[in-house]
C-alpha cells in the first residue's frame, strides 16, 4: 500500500531561498505549459491535422527552450519544472473525465510547492538530500519502511514541509470490533453519538476571530509593496496556519478515538457546499470542518479495517422516531426537542438522529448499496482496504 508522511523541514536562510526559487520555477513552468496548452488546443480545434497538446510534448518543448530563454532555472533541480508540467497533464485528465474543474494559473504565494521523483532524493535518518542544495534537516524521522516514490516540498505560512509518498508492505490493524455507532454532525457539538455522548468542536476560528480582524485591519493600512506590509502579511498567514493546525489536531484525535472504539460508523452525506451558502451559519459550519472530519474517518477506516456507512443526504434522520418509526413532516432547526405524536416518546433532536443512523447501519448490507440520492437506497457503504491512505503528522510550532 501507499502511505504519505508530512514532515516539517529545519531550514536556514540559504535553504529557504532555494525552496522559494524552486517553487517559483515550478509555478512558472506550470503557467507556461497551461498557456501553451490553451493555444495549441485552440489551433487543433481549427485544424485537426495538428497534434493535440499533451504534457510529454510540452516537456520536450520546454527543455529545448530552458537553457537559452530560462537559464535561471538551471540553479534548481530539474524536477521542479518537469513535475509541474506532468501535474498539469494530470489536471487536464481529471478535467476531461469530469473529476475536477478546468486548470487555472498558479499564483505566487498561494500553495507554493514543487515535487521531486524518487531518483532525485536521498533519506538518511533525520535529514534529506535535495539536488543542488544538499542535506536538509527534518524535524522527525520517516515513520515507515519501504520504497520512497516521491517527495513534495510545500510552504504553509512561514514553514516548509516535505510530504513523502512511501510504498510499504506494513499493514496496521486493530482488534476486531463489532460495535456500531451513529454520528449526527452539528454546529453546537461537532458530533452527537447514538450512545448519548457529544463531541465538542474546538472552533479555533471563532476563538481567534478578534485577533484575525485586528491583523487584517493593520494589513489593510500598510502601503502595498512595503516591507511592513510583508511583515503583517506573514503574521496573518501564521495565525491562519495556527487555526488550521488546532482544528486538524483536534479532528485527528477524535477520529482516531472513534475508529479505535467502533467497528462500523454511520453518518449522513451532508451537502457541505450547499450548507455554506447560508450566510447565518457558514462561518460556524466552516469552523467545524465537516468535510475534513469525514475524510479522516474514511481513510482511517480503510487503514484499520473498519467500515463507514454513509446515509443518503435525503434520509430524514431527525424527523423519524427511532422507537416507533413514525415520521413528522416539519421540524425546523430551532426545535431541539420534540415528542412523537404516535407513541409519545420524547426526543432530543440530535440523539434521535444519531440512533436512527445507527439503526440504518445495522440494517444495511453491502448488497443494499445503490444509487446515491435516488431515494431507492438509503446508504452507501465505504469498504476498508483502499489503495492509498494518508497520514498527517501534527507538528509543534517553532
Which helices and strands appear, and what pairs or packs with what?
Layout: E1 2-10, H1 13-46, H2 55-69, H3 79-96, E2 113-117, E3 122-124, E4 127-130, E5 134-138, E6 147-156, E7 159-167, E8 180-185, E9 191-193, E10 198-199, H4 204-207, H5 209-220, H6 227-261, E11 264-268, H7 272-275, H8 282-288, H9 290-304, E12 307-311, E13 337-339, E14 346-348, H10 349-363, E15 379-382, E16 391-392
Parallel strand pairs: 1-16, 8-11, 11-12
Antiparallel strand pairs: 1-5, 1-7, 2-6, 3-4, 4-5, 6-7, 8-9, 9-10, 12-15, 13-14
Main attributes?
398 residues; 20% strand; 8-stranded mixed β-sheet; 10 helices; disordered C terminus; alpha+beta; 16 strands; 6-stranded mixed β-sheet
Broad structural category: alpha+beta
- The run of helices and strands is EHHHEEEEEEEEEHHHEHHHEEEHEE
Helix content: 25-40%
Q: Poorly predicted ranges (pLDDT <50, ≥5 residues)?
A: 365-379, 382-398
Shape: elongated
The overall number of domains is 2
Kindly, what is the distance between the CA atoms of the first and last residues, rounded to a whole number of angstroms? 32 Å
Tally of DSSP β-strands? 16
Most strands sheet: 8 strands, mixed
If you compute it from the alpha carbons, what radius of gyration comes out, rounded to the nearest whole angstrom?
A: 25 Å
Mean pLDDT: 86
Oligomer: single chain
Strand content: 15-25%
- Our count of helices gives 10
Amino acid at each position: 500500500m501507499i502511505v504519505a508522511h508530512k514532515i516539517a523541514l529545519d531550514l536556514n536562510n540559504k535553504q529557504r531561498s532555494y525552496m522559494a526559487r524552486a517553487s517559483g520555477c515550478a509555478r512558472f513552468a506550470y503557467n507556461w505549459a497551461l498557456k501553451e496548452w490553451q493555444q495549441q488546443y485552440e489551433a487543433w480545434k481549427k485544424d485537426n491535422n495538428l497534434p493535440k497538446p499533451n504534457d510529454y510534448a510540452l516537456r520536450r518543448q520546454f527543455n529545448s527552450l530552458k537553457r537559452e530563454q530560462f537559464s535561471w532555472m538551471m540553479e534548481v533541480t530539474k524536477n521542479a519544472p518537469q513535475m509541474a508540467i506532468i501535474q498539469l497533464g494530470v489536471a487536464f485528465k481529471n478535467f476531461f473525465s469530469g473529476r475536477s474543474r478546468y486548470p487555472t494559473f498558479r499564483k505566487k504565494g498561494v500553495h507554493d510547492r514543487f515535487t521531486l521523483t524518487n531518483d532525485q532524493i536521498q533519506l538518511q535518518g533525520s535529514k534529506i538530500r535535495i539536488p543542488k542544495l544538499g542535506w536538509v534537516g527534518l524535524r522527525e524521522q520517516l515513520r515507515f519502511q519501504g520504497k520512497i516514490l516521491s517527495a513534495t516540498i510545500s510552504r504553509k505560512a512561514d514553514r516548509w514541509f516535505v510530504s513523502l509518498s512511501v510504498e510499504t508492505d506494513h499493514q496496521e490493524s486493530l482488534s476486531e470490533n463489532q460495535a456500531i455507532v451513529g454520528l449526527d454532525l452539528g454546529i453546537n457539538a461537532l458530533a452527537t453519538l447514538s450512545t448519548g455522548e457529544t463531541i465538542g468542536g474546538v472552533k479555533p476560528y471563532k476563538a481567534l476571530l478578534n485577533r484575525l480582524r485586528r491583523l487584517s485591519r493593520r494589513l489593510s493600512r500598510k502601503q502595498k509593496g512595503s516591507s511592513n506590509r510583508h511583515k503583517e502579511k506573514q503574521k496573518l498567514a501564521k495565525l491562519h496556519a495556527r487555526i488550521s493546525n488546532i482544528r486538524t489536531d483536534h479532528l485527528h484525535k477524535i477520529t482516531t478515538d472513534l475508529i479505535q472504539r467502533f467497528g462500523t460508523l454511520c453518518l449522513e452525506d451532508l451537502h457541505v457546499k450547499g450548507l455554506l451558502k447560508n450566510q447565518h451559519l457558514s462561518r460556524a459550519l466552516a469552523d467545524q470542518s465537516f468535510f475534513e472530519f469525514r475524510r479522516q474517518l474514511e481513510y482511517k477506516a480503510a487503514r484499520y479495517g473498519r467500515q463507514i456507512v454513509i446515509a443518503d443526504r435525503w434520509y430524514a434522520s431527525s424527523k423519524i422516531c427511532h422507537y416507533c418509526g413514525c415520521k413528522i413532516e416539519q421540524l425546523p432547526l430551532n426545535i431541539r426537542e420534540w415528542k412523537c405524536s404516535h407513541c409519545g416518546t420524547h426526543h432530543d433532536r440530535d440523539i434521535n438522529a444519531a440512533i436512527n443512523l445507527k439503526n440504518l447501519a445495522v440494517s444495511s448490507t453491502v448488497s443494499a448499496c445503490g444509487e446515491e440520492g435516488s431515494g431507492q437506497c438509503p446508504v452507501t457503504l465505504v469498504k476498508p482496504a483502499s489503495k492509498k491512505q494518508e497520514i498527517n503528522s501534527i507538528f509543534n510550532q517553532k
